[in-house]
């Protein structure tokens, strides 16, 4: 504000006729008028900017609402819950997504009931081999020494010969083959199981 007053004083000294420029009272009044007008102009511009931001915020909220509706529709088409009914109170309290517990991936894999639901989902996205591999490796971990060769052979045949749904690097495939003939342990399967969890 002080800067504006200073600029206004200098402009008035330059622009006013010499007779009016000598009048201190006139210069002070005109300086105040100019600075007040400039300040009101800035406030008006700020108000316009706030109105534009509010309008943009409404548009953004509308865009998010549309995107949310599209996501809910896609989830419903893929067999997920109907979120629209739960907002209107049409769904049971247990079906409300906000009341459902968020499970960790390890919890899903360790619980047979949760794993079954996950298996159904994996079938739907054509990735059942991943969960089947994980389950066979779990069996391998707890198998007695007599069962190990049979399970290793089943894993090798099912996932690396017949379907090749689980892609592995050549050095890992060689380790698997060494395990198959008994020259190596089953650690390679445990490592692959961890990688499969990341798919």
Automatic annotation (TrEMBL):
InterPro entries: Phox_assoc, RGS, RGS_sf, RGS_subdomain_2
Position of the signal peptide: 1-21
Sequence ranges assigned to domain RGS in this UniProt record: 104-160
Residues in PXA domain copies: 1-75
UniProt xrefs under Pfam families: RGS
Coiled coil ranges: none
Domain of life: Eukaryota
Alphabetical keyword list: Signal
Record flagged with keyword GTP-binding: no
PROSITE patterns membership: PXA, RGS
Protein name in the entry: Sorting nexin 25
């Amino acid at each position: 504000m002080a800067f504006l007053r200073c600029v206004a004083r200098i402009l008035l000294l330059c622009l006013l006729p010499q007779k009016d420029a000598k009048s201190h009272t006139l210069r002070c009044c005109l300086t105040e008028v100019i600075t007040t007008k400039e300040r009101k102009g800035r406030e008006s511009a700020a108000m316009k900017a706030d109105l534009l931001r509010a309008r943009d915020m409404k548009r953004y909220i509308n865009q998010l609402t549309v995107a949310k509706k599209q996501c809910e529709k896609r989830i419903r088409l893929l067999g997920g819950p109907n979120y629209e009914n739960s907002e209107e109170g049409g769904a049971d309290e247990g079906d409300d997504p906000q009341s459902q517990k968020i499970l960790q991936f390890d919890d899903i894999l360790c619980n047979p009931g949760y794993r079954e639901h996950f298996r159904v989902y994996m079938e739907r996205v054509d990735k059942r081999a991943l969960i089947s591999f994980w389950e066979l490796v779990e069996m391998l971990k707890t198998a007695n020494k007599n069962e190990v060769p049979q399970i290793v052979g089943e894993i090798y045949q099912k996932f690396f010969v017949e379907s090749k749904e689980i892609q592995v690097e050549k050095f890992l495939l060689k380790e698997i083959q060494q395990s198959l003939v008994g020259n190596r342990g089953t650690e390679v399967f445990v490592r692959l199981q961890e990688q499969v969890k990341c798919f």
